[in-house]
Design goal:
Length: about 160
Protein backbone atom coordinates (compact mmCIF):
# COMPACT_ATOMS: atom_id res chain seq x y z
CA UNK A 1 0.00 0.00 0.00
CA UNK A 2 1.42 3.35 -1.02
CA UNK A 3 1.37 6.48 1.05
CA UNK A 4 -1.32 7.89 -1.31
CA UNK A 5 -3.60 4.98 -0.49
CA UNK A 6 -2.95 5.45 3.21
CA UNK A 7 -3.76 9.15 2.96
CA UNK A 8 -6.95 8.37 1.04
CA UNK A 9 -8.05 5.83 3.70
CA UNK A 10 -7.28 8.32 6.46
CA UNK A 11 -9.44 10.94 4.73
CA UNK A 12 -12.26 8.40 4.44
CA UNK A 13 -12.03 7.51 8.13
CA UNK A 14 -12.33 11.18 9.06
CA UNK A 15 -15.13 11.94 6.56
CA UNK A 16 -17.42 8.97 7.27
CA UNK A 17 -18.35 9.91 10.87
CA UNK A 18 -19.00 13.50 9.78
CA UNK A 19 -21.27 12.33 6.96
CA UNK A 20 -23.11 9.96 9.30
CA UNK A 21 -23.95 12.77 11.70
CA UNK A 22 -27.65 12.83 12.55
CA UNK A 23 -29.89 15.39 10.91
CA UNK A 24 -31.38 18.00 13.25
CA UNK A 25 -34.93 17.40 14.46
CA UNK A 26 -37.59 19.90 13.45
CA UNK A 27 -40.13 21.62 15.66
CA UNK A 28 -43.09 23.83 14.92
CA UNK A 29 -44.56 26.34 17.36
CA UNK A 30 -48.12 27.40 16.61
CA UNK A 31 -49.44 30.83 17.60
CA UNK A 32 -50.84 30.54 21.12
CA UNK A 33 -54.55 31.05 21.70
CA UNK A 34 -55.27 34.11 23.85
CA UNK A 35 -58.15 34.01 26.31
CA UNK A 36 -58.69 37.53 27.56
CA UNK A 37 -59.35 41.08 26.46
CA UNK A 38 -58.72 42.01 22.81
CA UNK A 39 -55.83 44.26 23.81
CA UNK A 40 -53.80 41.10 24.61
CA UNK A 41 -54.33 39.29 21.28
CA UNK A 42 -50.78 40.22 20.21
CA UNK A 43 -49.49 37.78 22.83
CA UNK A 44 -50.32 34.73 20.66
CA UNK A 45 -47.79 35.38 17.90
CA UNK A 46 -45.41 36.98 20.41
CA UNK A 47 -45.25 33.79 22.47
CA UNK A 48 -44.75 31.82 19.26
CA UNK A 49 -41.74 33.97 18.29
CA UNK A 50 -40.25 33.85 21.77
CA UNK A 51 -40.47 30.05 21.99
CA UNK A 52 -39.05 29.58 18.49
CA UNK A 53 -36.05 31.70 19.48
CA UNK A 54 -35.50 29.99 22.83
CA UNK A 55 -35.97 26.41 21.57
CA UNK A 56 -33.73 26.67 18.50
CA UNK A 57 -30.63 24.57 19.12
CA UNK A 58 -28.26 24.80 16.14
CA UNK A 59 -27.51 21.38 14.69
CA UNK A 60 -30.01 19.62 16.98
CA UNK A 61 -33.46 21.26 16.85
CA UNK A 62 -34.38 23.52 13.95
CA UNK A 63 -37.64 25.49 13.79
CA UNK A 64 -39.92 24.91 10.83
CA UNK A 65 -40.51 27.81 8.49
CA UNK A 66 -42.92 30.08 10.34
CA UNK A 67 -44.88 30.71 7.14
CA UNK A 68 -46.16 27.11 7.46
CA UNK A 69 -48.18 28.14 10.52
CA UNK A 70 -49.90 31.11 8.92
CA UNK A 71 -53.63 30.81 9.53
CA UNK A 72 -53.25 27.81 11.86
CA UNK A 73 -54.71 27.89 15.35
CA UNK A 74 -53.87 25.90 18.45
CA UNK A 75 -55.46 22.44 18.15
CA UNK A 76 -58.40 21.77 20.44
CA UNK A 77 -57.29 18.30 21.47
CA UNK A 78 -54.52 15.75 21.11
CA UNK A 79 -56.07 14.08 18.05
CA UNK A 80 -56.16 17.40 16.19
CA UNK A 81 -52.57 18.06 17.30
CA UNK A 82 -51.41 14.70 15.87
CA UNK A 83 -53.11 15.50 12.57
CA UNK A 84 -51.42 18.93 12.48
CA UNK A 85 -48.02 17.42 13.35
CA UNK A 86 -48.29 14.93 10.47
CA UNK A 87 -49.61 17.55 8.04
CA UNK A 88 -46.68 19.86 8.83
CA UNK A 89 -44.22 16.92 8.70
CA UNK A 90 -42.42 18.10 11.82
CA UNK A 91 -40.80 16.09 14.63
CA UNK A 92 -42.32 18.16 17.44
CA UNK A 93 -45.43 20.34 17.61
CA UNK A 94 -45.75 22.98 20.33
CA UNK A 95 -49.04 24.74 20.99
CA UNK A 96 -50.97 26.24 23.85
CA UNK A 97 -52.89 29.13 25.29
CA UNK A 98 -52.44 32.09 27.56
CA UNK A 99 -55.28 33.25 29.79
CA UNK A 100 -55.24 36.83 31.05
CA UNK A 101 -57.38 37.68 34.09
CA UNK A 102 -56.83 41.20 35.37
CA UNK A 103 -53.14 41.48 36.20
CA UNK A 104 -52.58 37.71 36.32
CA UNK A 105 -51.97 35.24 33.52
CA UNK A 106 -51.57 31.52 33.08
CA UNK A 107 -49.84 29.77 30.22
CA UNK A 108 -50.60 26.21 29.20
CA UNK A 109 -48.26 24.65 26.66
CA UNK A 110 -48.13 21.21 25.10
CA UNK A 111 -45.37 19.46 23.20
CA UNK A 112 -46.21 16.50 20.97
CA UNK A 113 -43.48 14.33 19.45
CA UNK A 114 -43.80 12.39 16.21
CA UNK A 115 -43.65 9.24 18.37
CA UNK A 116 -46.88 10.34 20.10
CA UNK A 117 -45.40 11.45 23.43
CA UNK A 118 -47.03 14.53 24.98
CA UNK A 119 -45.48 16.85 27.55
CA UNK A 120 -47.82 19.37 29.15
CA UNK A 121 -46.23 22.47 30.69
CA UNK A 122 -47.91 25.23 32.68
CA UNK A 123 -46.97 28.48 34.35
CA UNK A 124 -48.78 31.19 36.29
CA UNK A 125 -47.46 34.68 36.86
CA UNK A 126 -48.40 38.31 37.15
CA UNK A 127 -48.84 39.72 33.65
CA UNK A 128 -45.73 41.89 34.06
CA UNK A 129 -43.69 38.70 34.65
CA UNK A 130 -44.99 36.81 31.60
CA UNK A 131 -41.62 36.85 29.82
CA UNK A 132 -39.72 35.20 32.70
CA UNK A 133 -42.55 32.63 33.00
CA UNK A 134 -42.24 31.83 29.27
CA UNK A 135 -38.48 31.63 29.67
CA UNK A 136 -39.03 29.01 32.38
CA UNK A 137 -41.34 27.04 30.09
CA UNK A 138 -38.74 27.13 27.31
CA UNK A 139 -36.06 25.90 29.71
CA UNK A 140 -38.32 23.06 30.84
CA UNK A 141 -38.99 22.02 27.23
CA UNK A 142 -35.30 22.29 26.33
CA UNK A 143 -34.27 20.19 29.33
CA UNK A 144 -37.08 17.61 29.60
CA UNK A 145 -38.12 17.18 25.97
CA UNK A 146 -35.08 18.14 23.86
CA UNK A 147 -32.57 16.88 26.48
CA UNK A 148 -30.37 19.95 26.06
CA UNK A 149 -27.47 19.23 28.48
CA UNK A 150 -26.72 22.65 29.97
CA UNK A 151 -30.44 23.40 30.42
CA UNK A 152 -31.08 20.03 32.07
CA UNK A 153 -28.26 20.76 34.54
CA UNK A 154 -29.66 24.23 35.33
CA UNK A 155 -33.17 22.92 36.05
CA UNK A 156 -31.82 20.13 38.29
CA UNK A 157 -29.57 22.45 40.30
CA UNK A 158 -32.39 24.88 41.16
Amino acid sequence: MTWKHCLFLLCLLVAVPAAAKEQPKSFTVLPFAVNGPDKYQHLGPGIQDMLIYRLHWQGHFQPSDKSMTKGLKAPGDEAAAKKTLHTLETDYLIWGSVTVMGEQCSVDAHVLSSEGDVWPQAAQAPLKELIPALDGLAKAINGEVFKRPQVAQQTVSK
